[in-house]
Design goal:
Layout (H helix, E strand, L loop, with lengths): L8 H35 L16 H4 L1 E7 L2 E6 L4 H11 L7 E7 L4 H4 L16 H17 L1
Antiparallel strand pairs: 1-2, 1-3
Helix pairs in contact: 1-5
Length: 150
Amino acid sequence: MGITSTYKPNVAYKELKANQEVEYLKFIKMAKVIATRFVEDARSQPEGHHLGFYDNRTFMLRNSIAAYIFRDGFLIWANERGHAAENRKIISEEVVLTYKGFDVIGMAGKFYASYVEKIHASYMESKGYNVVTNQGNVFILDLTKLMSTM
């Protein structure tokens, strides 16, 4: 008259995997929403505004603004326009991706973005306009909130 266990490791493993998939899909969905908002806000900011937004004369810089989601070093989602090849080259050469986990990247892919927006000390003659910094700050804060609720 012993106690018999009804525990089945295979069933528990399947339930765990299903729960992980649900959480993964929730994270990806929220990251896509935040990344899309980042790109749309950065591309649609006002021109010639007294707060220091640059004029969009050639559309090259704003069209280079993109967002990417990587999982374990592999691209799983992108919101980009005509400068996809340039942006991806910058990521492959300049960004160290996490090979266990997620990387969410928001960027202005043109080399002169740091000249238009003063973000680097070596650019003494930078214009000081917003390109992606204002949007990038919101992007990071939103991801922090998301991760704290998961």
